[in-house]
Amino acid sequence: MHTQAPRALVVDDDPSWQQILAEILTDQGMAVDVAGNLAEATASLRAAPHRLAVVDLALGQEDHRNQDGLSVLDALRRHDPGCTALLLSGHATVEIAVSALTKYGAFTCLRKESFRRSEFRQVVRQALASAPGAAPAASLAEALPPQPAASSLAPTASTAADAPALAPASASPEPLRRALVVEDDAGWRSMLAELLTDLGFGVDLCRSYGEALGYLRRSSYAVAVVDLTLASSLAPDDNTDGLRLLSAARRAEVPAVVVSGSALPSHVEEAYQEHGIIAFLEKRAFDRAALRRAVAEAVRLEGGEESALTARELEVLALLKQGLTNKEIAEALVISENTVKRHVKGVFLKLDVNTRAAAVARGISLGLVHR
């Protein structure tokens, strides 16, 4: 009996990318439709259902501000809910990627500039395995070995210890605090890495309990960002890998923040009460500022209560960032210059720096002040 090949839709205005993606998907055993703009994509959606869609964000030729790809994702969500969508773009920001994942239901978001065929094939296999109506992949963890998300929405430097320091070039580089991200979804893994890198962290990425446990035993971390439900679990019917990791992080004295798409209320309560997490952030309502605040709190706890800046010291640090002198700070806060000097000294001591520029750089890296 002849089995009809599953259909895939490639939506990209660049003929070269159309050819590359169609070739890979055809090799994966799929029948491929190609569209170059929103109108053509809509027509393809009306003509036949699809199992997979690979969508570029900008479909306006050279107009990099174009976001018609989001309209395609919206049309897929409304008219072809059985289709799993991948956003593949050279222009998507973290905010757009989060929106694609949470509001428009994309499976993951990948970067064109770090595209690798082998990794893309792996993501396609994972997406098809999770598509509605697809049979479970018995050896999915084996088919998708753990590796850095080089093809996803984050610079490859996010996984390296030499991520750029925030201190001025004239200052001696300070050792980077390190963060551990445990997330099985490539798009979320890379977005979290990008956000943490922007906060001045060196980031290690992993996707399973076993891999994360090895990192915790080998290295020291200022914070761990953990997904509660990991698809690579050895016990998928009773997936408590995230909770086990929180327990391991607490034993290692690493403050933890949970970023998760689904969790039982009992698991959330356990995460707070038994494992002492800093915050539980839902992916559907993800907010960059909330993550920044949670990470800042984690870093303060990791450094001890005595290292936390007072409310007044935070005000002084914010004014130091503006480049104000001690006299100008005193006038702004209606205090004496001597009092300002004491607060500046306290900021230096608690942030372990010796200059105003270094204090500002460290404050930004800890999320204490905005860029």
The secondary-structure element order is: EHEHEHEHEHHEHEHEHEHEHHHHH
**Could you tell me the number of beta strands?**
10
Q: What is the overall silhouette?
A: globular
The amount of beta strand, in percent, is 5-15%
Helical content, roughly?
40-55%
Architecture blueprint of SSEs:
Layout: E1 7-11, H1 15-27, E2 31-35, H2 38-47, E3 52-55, H3 68-79, E4 84-89, H4 94-102, E5 108-111, H5 117-130, H6 140-143, E6 178-182, H7 186-198, E7 202-206, H8 209-218, E8 223-226, H9 241-251, E9 256-260, H10 265-273, E10 279-282, H11 288-303, H12 311-321, H13 326-333, H14 337-351, H15 356-365
Parallel strand pairs: 1-2, 1-3, 3-4, 4-5, 6-7, 6-8, 8-9, 9-10
Description:
- The protein is of the alpha/beta class and 371 residues long.
- The chain has three domains: 7-143, Response regulator (Rossmann fold, 3-Layer(aba) Sandwich); 156-305, 3-Layer(aba) Sandwich (Rossmann fold); 309-365, Arc Repressor Mutant, subunit A, CATH 1.10.10.
- 44% of the residues lie in helices and 13% in strands.
- It has 15 helices and ten strands.
- The protein has a five-stranded parallel β-sheet, sandwiched between helices. A five-stranded parallel β-sheet has the order 7-6-8-9-10, sandwiched between helices.
- Strand 1 (7-11), helix 1 (15-27) and strand 2 form a beta-alpha-beta unit.
- The longest helix is centred in the last third of the chain and has 16 residues, at 288-303.
- It is globular.
- The model is unreliable at 133-175 (pLDDT under 50).
